Amino acid sequence: MKRASLETSFPRSLAKSATSSPLDWSSYRPDDTAVLCFLRKPGWLLLIRKKRGLGAGKINGPGGKTEPGETPRDTAIRETREEVGLIPSEPRHQGALRFAFADGYRLEVHIFTATSWEGSLCETDEALPFWCPQEEIPYTEMWEDDILWLPAVLEGKSVEGEMFLRGDSLEFWDLRCSDDHQVG
Ligand SMILES: Nc1[nH]c(=O)nc2c1ncn2[C@H]1C[C@H](O)[C@@H](COP(=O)(O)OP(=O)(O)OP(=O)(O)O)O1
Questions:
Q1: What residue segments make up the domains of the chain, in order of their start?
Q2: Which of 62, 172, 178, 182 is deepest in the core (most CB within 10 A)?
Q3: Strands, E, within the chain: which ranges?
Q4: Contact 8/176 with Cβ under 8 angstroms?
Q5: Could you tell me if 95 and 160 are in contact, meaning their C-beta atoms sit under 8 angstroms apart?
Q6: Which residues form the Nudix hydrolase domain (predicted)?
Q7: Which one, of 70, 82, 81, lies nearest residue 117 by Cα?
Q8: Rounded to 5 degrees, what are φ and ψ at 95?
């Protein structure tokens, strides 16, 4: 696999936190697998204000946990339809992030983007969707980690990494990215 060096992929300050990791990631096993699916049209990104579940109140992409028998891509399509009424065509996998929370919960999140879809955009019990100019992404209302990796995804890169959160605070991260969409 071709992988761009960290220095060219992420500014050094974003690639890795200064703190040492609070856990041994080699034995990491997620409790749940989830997805995020960012729909894109030129200059715009579909975001949601999440109404319930993990991260309720925050802004994020549509997404949620994988159900038994689903691939992450299946989940991306189902969750996007359930949350905002749009069915992405051929969502593109752009990596996976391994989250560990201080309470012990571990969630692996696969990242997808899509540039075409069917259906009609609608608000649901789970999400209030809105098109956001790509230059005005409201990172201060999102998970703290998003500003580290979402810009690389929007540049078309694939990302992988490990992140430790205490509540809403990101305490440790280690991120890599590549240009060839084969990470994760
Ligand atoms: N640190 C983080 N940064 C981020 O960008 N998204 C995160 C995150 N931690 C969790 N998420 C997102 C990813 C995924 O889409 C979502 C999982 O949330 P949910 O628990 O709401 O899943 P579901 O929609 O399946 O809900 P339930 O049916 O209530 O279990 O949270």
A1: 31-178
A2: 62
A3: 32-41, 44-50, 59-60, 63-65, 86-88, 92-101, 106-114, 117-119, 127-133, 158-166, 169-178
A4: no
A5: yes
A6: 30-155
A7: 81
A8: 110, -175
Q: 141: Cβ below 6 Å to ligand 1?
A: no
Where residue 129 falls (left for φ over 0; alpha for ψ -120 to 50; beta otherwise) is beta
Mutation choice for ligand 1 from 46, 109, 146, 149, CB with most ligand atoms inside 8 A: 109
Q: Are β-strands 106-114 and 32-41 bridged in parallel, bridged antiparallel, or unpaired?
A: parallel
Superfamily holding 31-178: Nucleoside Triphosphate Pyrophosphohydrolase (3.90.79.10)
Mean pLDDT of 102-125: 98
The owner of tokens 């802004």 is 59
Closest ligand 1 atom to 146 CA: 5
pLDDT tens track for 43-90: 999 999 999 999 999 999 999 999 999 999 999 999 999 999 999 999
pLDDT per residue over 143-152, tens digit each? 999 999 999 9
Pull the structure tokens for residue 4.
């761009």
Rounded to the nearest whole angstrom, what is the distance from the C-alpha of residue 62 to the centroid of ligand 1?
Answer: 9
Question: What is the CB-side half-sphere exposure of residue 150 using CA atoms within 13 A?
Answer: 23
pTM: 0.93
